[in-house]
Amino acid sequence: MNTLPDDLISKAQSLIAASRRPVVFSGAGVSKESGIPTFRDALEGLWAKYEPEELATPQAFERQPELVWNFYQHRRDTLKDCQPNPAHYAIAALERDKPETIVITQNVDGFHQQAGNQNVIPLHGNIRENRCYYGCPGEWPQEAVPEGDTVPPRCPQCGESSLRPNVVWFGEMLNPALMEAAIEAVDQCDTFIIVGTSGAVQPAASLALKALEEGKTVIEINPDATMYSERATVFLPARAAQVLPLLILGGMERPC
Ligand code: OAD
Ligand code: ZN
Closest Cα to residue 160, out of 150, 171, 170? Predict the structure, then answer.
């Protein structure tokens, strides 16, 4: 049951309907209703005894590549039981309706792509892909790893047992090309929709501040207020899966 005031919904609906170049900036909250365990949730069972620094840093991979690889296999396995939720599908419908829509996501679950968005900037990478620890060019989908390969698997370029998940680890820099594309997307957009992020992590969080500073129309969806909420054009204290379909599909003449 939607408990939001109607005028808030219709204001956000008309702002989204009027936009031509929306950017959706998403965080872990958009995947909450998909039941995605957060990074800390994944530190359960036999992984509970490890600190994140022992499992998600370049140093950890240098020290114990097999342990780190197996931890990410565990995270990929838990992802298998999860699916995109109505929020992801509403954002995919937005891109079908407005082809210049761009998604900038901090999530590594690949659900925006799986739900159908084509223009996705995965700032923190994608857990379903691997890349070479030694920097060989390219990313390879997890499915492409041959059965019975070494652990970690061999890089298709250099042949070393050096494949690592294509995600940003603690202490690592973001891929500069992705950050550049994200900054460009904020510059070009006319509407900036913030969904389910606490804004706790830089430099990603600075993108939403940039949109606010540049006077973009900013719509935020989050059950809890964040540092963006007071300055947003419209702040909707709500869950993404509950309200995004309403804002996006509800505002369309013919939901596509
Ligand atoms: P956080 O866990 O910091 O914040 C999640 C946000 O989602 C919070 O503000 C919640 O209030 C909100 N939320 C919870 N349920 C929601 C729902 N149903 N609908 C909408 N919002 C909801 O996650 P992020 O802000 O994404 O970095 O954190 C950013 C980064 O911190 C992650 O990408 C990861 C982590 O370190 C890397 O992996 C590099
Ligand atoms: Zn290589």
Answer: 150
Helices (H), 134-248: 176-188, 204-213, 240-248
Distance in angstroms (rounded) separating the CA atoms of residues 91 and 101: 9
Comma-separated ranges of CATH 3.30.1600.10 domains in the chain: 37-81+127-167
How close is the Cα of 51 to the center of ligand 1, in Å? 20
Which class is 37-81+127-167 in CATH? alpha beta
Measured from the CA of 33, which atom of ligand 1 is nearest?
Answer: 18
Q: What is the pLDDT of residues 195-247, one digit of tens each?
A: 999 999 999 999 999 999 999 999 999 999 999 999 999 999 999 999 999 99
Q: What is the CATH number of domain 1-35+84-124+174-256?
A: 3.40.50.1220
For residue 147, the CA-to-ligand 2 centroid distance in Å is 19
Q: Which residues are catalytic?
A: 124
Q: What pLDDT does 251 receive? A: 64
Q: Which of 51, 55, 106, 174 to mutate to test the pocket of ligand 1 (most atoms within 8 A of CB)?
A: 106
In the chain, % helix, strand, coil (3-state, to 5) comes to 40, 15, 45
CA distance 111 to 29: 12
**Could you tell me the maximum CA-CA distance found in the chain, to the nearest angstrom?**
59
Q: Whose CA is nearest to atom 6 of ligand 1?
A: 197
CA trace torsion 131, 137, 138, 143 (10° rounding):
-40
